[in-house]
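Table S2 (continued). Query chain:
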Amino acid sequence: MNILHQIIAAAKSLATLPASDFTISGYIKYFAAIIAISSLGSVAKMLGDHTEKVTKRVVVTYLITGTTAGLILSLLTIDKYGGSFLLVGISGVAGFGSVQILSVLSYGFQSVIKKFFGTK
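Corresponding output:
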């Protein structure tokens, strides 16, 4: 998160949405853009990495992880930086990298489960 703060602080003027756009419909459009970009980033990662048959379960997993990562990042930063287009782009990168984080966490969780409940 510290690197994100440095990137945003380095930008002299962020292209932010006008204050008049931040009505309920403005927030809906902003978060819909974040969901779309982060989901697109996760699907791009899936298409680049996945060499086996792509099933519905794989697609849904990638979409959920990308969307979750993008929304978490945007919700953590919107109060401090406002509705910035840079944050929408960073949410796309978060969606792209979220699959790697999920796979590391799932392997760790699986090894803990096997350690405590493994077959003998």
